[in-house]
Each structure stands twice: as C-alpha cells, then as structure tokens.
Design goal:
The complex is a heterodimer.
Chain A lengths: L7 H11 L2 H5 L14 H15 L2 H4 L9 H5 L4 E9 L5 E2 L2 E2 H14 L4 E12 L4 H18 L2 E10 L7 E11 L15 E4 L5 H9 L17 H10 L5 E4 L4 H13 L2 E5 L7 H10 L12 E5 L1 H12 L8 E7 L6 E4 L5 E3 L13
Parallel strand pairs in A: 4-5, 9-12
Antiparallel strand pairs in A: 1-6, 2-3, 4-6, 7-10, 7-11, 8-10, 9-11, 12-13
Chain B lengths: L9 H17 L2 H4 L2 E7 H9 L2 H4 L4 E8 L7 H11 L4 E5 L13 H6 L4 E3 L3 H10 L4 E8 L4 H14 L4 E7 L2 H10 L7 E4 L1 H7 L5 H5 L5 E3 L4 H17 L4 E3 L11 H10 E3 L4 E2 L3 E2 L5 E3 L8 H4 L15 H5 L31 H9 L14
Parallel strand pairs in B: 1-2, 1-7, 3-4, 3-5, 5-6, 7-8, 8-9
Antiparallel strand pairs in B: 10-13, 11-12
Helix pairs in contact in B: 1-12, 3-16, 8-13
The chains are: A alpha+beta, B alpha/beta.
C-alpha cells in the first residue's frame, strides 16, 4: 500500500539507526521554548527526531511542503479525499494505545469513510514547554509504527512550542490525503428504507478505557482502546459492494450520534435492535456503575455502515474475514418513519428513542 | 452480567405483561379511565424510558413522573448562590456531574467553570474531603444534593472532617426529605394519582414504615420498587393486584435491598448532622414546609451558608413553566405550553427538563415518538 514513489527499503533503514540513537544525540532532555524558535535547537529536534523516525524522501527533502506527482495518484482513482483532525486526548498513553496511534488512525479513518485509500499524512505538533523528550519520542515512535503498519507516509510537518500552561503536554494535528476510486459514492444522505445497518464489532471500548485511565474513579478493568485503522476493512467492503450508501467512523458521540446524522441527512427512520449490538461485558459493567450509555461512548476503530439489504450478508461475511471486522454484525434497519430519528427495540422488549446527546454524558448522582 | 441480566429477562417481562393485562380487566376503574401510577423517584423514570417499559404496558396504565429528581428541583436562587460561591477565588466548588448543568437565573456551574471558576466534578463527598486535604490553602465546598439516599454519605463525610479536624471543608446543603414531598403532592387539589411506586434507595435508608400514611390516610396503594425494568413491571403488577383486591397497603418489592426498618446507622448519622428547615423552596412546586434540611448548630463550621456571604435571593420560576402540573399528573410533559419549544434539554426553562432523570427531559430524549410509529426492528444476524 506504500505509495509508489516511496520504496520500502528507505523506510526500513530507519529502524536500526534510530532505536535509542536519536535520544542520545539530543542535548536537552526537556522541550524548551528554543525547540520552537526556528533556530538550532529546533533544527536538531526536527532532524534528529521527526525526519529520522518518519524517514521518507518526501519529508527528508526538508522543504516547506511535500511535493507529490499527480500522475501517480491518478492511477489509483479519480477524486482526492482531504481531511484534518486534532488530537488532545488526556492521558497521552492509555490501555490499548496513545495519542500517537490515535493521530494516525483517526485521520486514516476519516479518509477511509469516503471509500478513499489513504496515502499521505501531515503531522503538526504543539508542545508544552517542559515536556520530556522521552515522552515526545515515544509518541513519535508510536506514530511511526502506526503509519507503517497502515501503509501511509507522514510527508510534512510542523512543530510549535508554547509556554508552560498554554497547552497540556502535547497536542497533535494530522491532515491526510487519499484517493477515491471512480465507482464509490458514499454519503450520509443515501440511506433508503429497506437498507441495513452494520457495525464492525464491540462498541464503547475506547470511551471506557480513557475514562478509567484517568484514574479518577478508582475502578480497574481490562478494557483496552479499540484504536485501529479501518481503511483496509473499508477497501474490502467496497470490493464486495461498491454501492455502500452511508459510512462513518463512530468516534466522539458514539454510534448513536452517527446514526442520528444519517437519519437526519437522509430523512429516514433508523431502527436498532439492542440485542444485536456488540458490547463487551466489561464495558456494559462500567456503564452500569457510571450511568453511561454505550451507544454514546467514543470509539477509535469502529464504523457504522448503511448498505442495500441484498448486499448485507456478503458484506458482513467479507468483513468478518478481516481482523478489524471479526465481530461485525447487522444491528438494525432503515425505514421511512420516524422521519429523521433513531429508535431502538430494547433487549427487554420495549422501544425507545435514541436521541442526539446534549453536551457530554455526565454521570447521574443516584 | 450476572445479577443484572436476570432483572432484564424479556421472557419474564412478557409473562408479567400478560398478568398485568389480566389484572387490568379485573379493575373497575380501568373501564372508565386510565390508572395513574406515580413513580416518585427519578431513577425509576430513567429506567421506564431507557427500557421502554411505558411502551409495553396496556393503555389503561399510565406512569406519572414524580418530583424525585433532586437535581431538577433545585431552585434558581440556590444555583445562583452556588455560582457566587464558586466564583470566589479562594473556593473550590465540588459537586456531582449532572448538577453542573442546572441553570440559575443567569448561568450554571458548568458555565461558571468555563469563565474561570474552579468547579470540579466528584463521585462522592469523600472525594471533596480529599481535595480539601490536598489544598489546605483553599476552601472546598461540596454542593450537597439529594433525598435520604445521598444524605447519609454527606453526613458521614462531615463527621469524618470533624474527626480529622479539617476546617477548610464545608457543605452547601440542599438535601431534601421525601415524606413531606409526597405529602405535598397528595394534598394538591388537582392530583390525578391513584397509586405510587415508592423510591427504592431512599427506602433503603428510611425503611417502609414512614409511608404508612399514604395507604391508611390517603387510601392509595404504594409499592417500594427496585430500579431494573423487571422490578418496575413487578411493582406495577403488585399495585394493580392491590387495586383489584380492594387493598391499600405499603408493600416492598425491593426486599433484596430495602429492609423494613431501614438503616439505623445511616439514620443516626443524618440525625446527628442535619435538622429540618421550616421552609424550603422547590423549582416547579413552590415552597414545601419542612421538606429541606440544614446543618445543626454544632456543625456551623462546616456549613457554607454560615461560613460565607451569599446573595440568597429568591428567583421566581418562569411564569410559562408548568412543571407543577406535570409533577401532579394534571398534564403530560408534551402538553406543557413550552415543552420542546422554549424549554429543551439544551436550554431548560423548567425543573423537569434539567437532568435526564427529569420527566420532561426523559420524555424529550426517549419517549416523544408516539407508540404507533415504532415497531421493533427485525434483525437477522
């Protein structure tokens, strides 16, 4: 999946060179304002850390921009997908991942939800004065591995340092570019009565993992973030059914929010079946204790798709052969009414509305 | 999840619903009009909507959502006092999550926090006490809310603060007590309630005896109910059974948690720390005599109302707001003049729209679509 102009060999050389190598060469052990000043310290940080770790010829050129020949993109599709996202998660490291994986997977997934094949990422970092270089190095290393595993290349970047207190340790922005093949036309407006709703596995893991990693609750659990890139799974889905109607990754606000967006944009009613929605026991348990609803919990590796009914079984079957889609399931269907709303048959046998969330989910008191 | 899934078994629910239908056929009143059962507690309201229990019952049985959401009923003037306290630079204001969103006459604690006030969400008053120990140079105030359910934990925290000699901790006490509240509802002339589901967790503390007057003096059946959907259905069945048999009694469906005598230790802690206030203002209901508590004189040092200057201004409820009528079962939430228009969960005008446990917010979030338009989804996989 590596873009053609970047051969894999150059990427592999980096591993041997950098394992602990760059850290020893850095003079400072903490980020200072000098690392963002444009002077020698900044150049050292960029060259020793970012260029060495992300190692690729487009970045190593050290121009103000990455330059990509158009004809090589055109061989892969007819349209560009372009997106950006900022990552400010607290804590930086949590069970199952870190801000580094999120920054790569999140932007890849935003591209992938258009059916695009993600190719290039940028990496903008805002660092708080005093941040340990070790921490920064670990985040960059995680980004490197996440990008390499996903077959995308980080080709341009920027670093700013702000005074202590003006940012919380480390923020990352990544923008991404991908290419969409000509026969795919995914849009939130395309859900039609009779369509079927699919998700690729257990929901809510990321939300609970982050909440518990903050250690404010004195609860322990084995829940890990589900952060993972979804573009290969989507490519598989598109291969089986180019005519996927709607597709989004269910990040903040959970699957409830995405489905409400689909229902509103397509003017249809979405009917879920609670018993069919995969939720880990541990996540259900944490939700019970905290008064949260898994439908609204954040995910970092879950998508919701709306597909024509006759394609549903082949798609789910294909998804289940991919590691990111092993637990894929049909969770509901689209009807004409209630217009613009999501309703759910509860496992208990009742029905209820699944509305858009107002603000954050705040725990109930009693 | 063992011990939870048993209380959400759809097959058991179906057989209970069948028995409820049978009972409805035996009750004369049902032939003239639907029976109104008030669930006093906001936790019940939440379960009813979350699991769609209301949609499963026959049309002859209706829930009337009572005043039991302590967050919702906090009057605007008290929220203003709380915001004023939070804005003092020497104060760290602490409270439970959903209390942060309740608006006063101008703003909520959440908005005050955005403007720079130090407001922190805690999960227990003991967390607030911990904060006080960690910040000896600041005053940590805990916004204490709730019925007898949360009162003991607040009382124990104050007693612990006293034992440990922590002087930079205090309560802004807005606890309310259940019995005068139910009595106020029963005494309102336009009441449309035939029976009650009694609050489970309050009863765990106070026991079942204090409700006797409801059955004996007011001739209304009451069943103390648990919070799982099968608890609710079974309690409805028990209420209807009483009506079919012509009985009015206090029954306890939630025996696995509620002992008839309550919890002596918790009651003692409440008695030690708190005393009744003569007047206490409710959002949507006006003043209910002897429904609020305050801290006894020996604990004045832990009482934020005595420790700090507060505006203490009464702010009347908006005139368009019909929370009182909804609470008494006179109208249903969507029948209120401002429901869903100038009063929404984003911008609550009335008490009942404030927290997800409030009747109007629950209706707005879960229940507004009429019964007919929703049929359960049929799903293969």
């Amino acid at each position: 999946m590596t873009p053609p102009m970047l051969d894999r060999q150059s990427a592999d050389i980096s591993t041997a060179q950098t394992a602990n190598g760059w850290l020893a060469r850095m003079r400072e052990k903490r980020i200072t304002l000098a690392h963002g000043s444009g002077g020698k310290a900044m150049r050292e940080l960029v060259e020793q850390l970012f260029v060495t770790e992300f190692n690729n010829p487009l970045l190593a050129a050290l121009e103000d921009q990455a330059v990509v020949p158009l004809d090589e993109l055109q061989q892969q599709g007819t349209r560009l997908a372009f997106t950006t996202d900022s990552y400010v998660v607290n804590p930086l490291f949590f069970p199952g991942g870190s801000i580094g994986e999120l920054a790569v997977h999140g932007t890849i997934n935003d591209l992938a939800m258009s059916g695009a094949r993600p190719l290039f990422l940028s990496c903008g970092m805002i660092l708080e004065e005093g941040l340990s270089i070790d921490t920064l190095g670990e985040v960059v290393s995680r980004m490197k591995h996440a990008a390499r595993e996903a077959g995308v290349v980080i080709v341009t970047g920027d670093t700013k340092v702000v005074e202590r207190g003006a940012a919380d340790k480390l923020f990352v922005n990544t923008a991404g570019i991908g290419v969409i093949r000509h026969d795919v036309a995914i849009s939130a407006t395309r859900a039609r009565p009779g369509d079927v709703v699919i998700t690729n596995g257990y929901i809510g893991d990321h939300g609970i993992a982050i909440l518990l990693a903050r250690n404010e609750l004195a609860l322990e659990s084995s829940v890990e973030s589900d952060t993972q890139p979804l573009h290969e799974l989507v490519q598989e889905m598109v291969r089986v059914c180019p005519d996927i109607h709607c597709l989004r990754d269910a990040t903040r606000g959970g699957i409830a929010t995405v489905l409400n967006e689909f229902a509103a944009s397509s003017n249809v009613g979405i009917h879920l079946s609670e018993a069919a929605i995969p939720v880990h026991e541990t996540v259900r348990g944490a939700c019970e204790i905290l008064g949260l609803d898994p439908l609204y919990l954040a995910n970092e590796g879950k998508l919701v798709a709306i597909v024509p009914r006759e394609q549903a079984d082949p798609i789910v079957e294909a998804m289940r052969t991919h590691p990111a889609g092993r637990d894929s399931a049909i969770i509901g269907e689209v009807k004409e009414t209630p217009n613009g709303a999501v309703v759910m048959a509860t496992a208990f046998g009742g029905t209820r509305v699944v509305d858009t969330l107002i603000g954050d989910q705040l725990p109930r008191i009693c | 999840m063992k011990f939870i899934d048993e209380f959400r078994d759809p097959l058991k629910a179906q057989s209970l619903i069948r028995e409820i239908r049978d009972l409805v056929g035996q009750i004369e009143l049902c032939k003239r009009r639907p029976i109104g059962i008030m669930e006093v507690c906001g936790g019940h309201t939440h379960t009813i909507f979350r699991y769609g229990v209301n949609k499963m019952l026959p049309d002859e049985v209706e829930f009337i959502h009572g005043p039991g959401c302590p967050v919702c009923v906090l009057p605007r003037g008290r929220v203003d006092d709380c915001v004023a306290l939070a804005q003092r630079p020497d104060v760290i204001m602490t409270t439970f999550g959903d209390a942060m969103r309740v608006t006063g006459s101008k703003k909520s604690l959440l908005q005050a926090k955005a403007e720079g006030a130090d407001v922190r969400m805690v999960y227990s008053p003991l967390d607030a006490l911990k904060l006080a120990k960690a910040h000896p140079d600041r005053e940590v105030v805990f916004l204490a809310l709730g019925f007898e359910t949360t009162m003991p934990s607040t009382a124990f925290t104050v007693l612990q603060a006293q034992r440990e000699g922590i002087s930079n901790f205090s309560l802004f006490c807005n606890h309310i007590t259940i019995i005068p509240t139910i009595k106020a509802v029963l005494d309102s002339p336009d009441l449309q309630v035939d029976a009650f589901l009694g609050p489970g967790h309050v009863s765990m503390v106070i026991g079942t005896e204090p409700y006797r007057f409801i059955a004996e003096r007011y001739r209304k059946p009451i069943v103390i109910a648990g919070f799982e959907p099968l608890d609710i259905l079974q309690s409805v069945w028990m209420v209807l059974k009483q009506m079919a048999d012509g009985r009015c009694e206090v029954e306890n469906q939630y025996r696995r948690v509620v002992p008839d005598v309550g919890n002596a230790q918790a009651l003692e802690a409440i008695q030690t720390v708190f005393e009744l206030r003569e007047f206490f203002e409710w959002r949507g209901l006006g003043s209910i005599d002897y429904s609020g508590v305050r801290m006894k004189a020996p604990f004045a040092g832990y009482d934020a109302e005595r420790k700090f200057e507060m505006p203490n201004i009464k702010i009347a409820d908006p005139t368009s707001c019909q929370c009182g009528e909804v609470l008494k079962g006179v109208i249903k939430p969507p029948q209120c003049k401002v429901f869903g228009t100038s009063c929404t969960p984003e911008n609550p005008l009335g008490a009942l729209m404030v927290s997800t446990e409030g009747a109007c917010a629950a209706y707005y979030n879960y229940g507004w679509i009429d019964r007919e338009s929703i049929k359960p989804a049929k799903v293969s996989a």
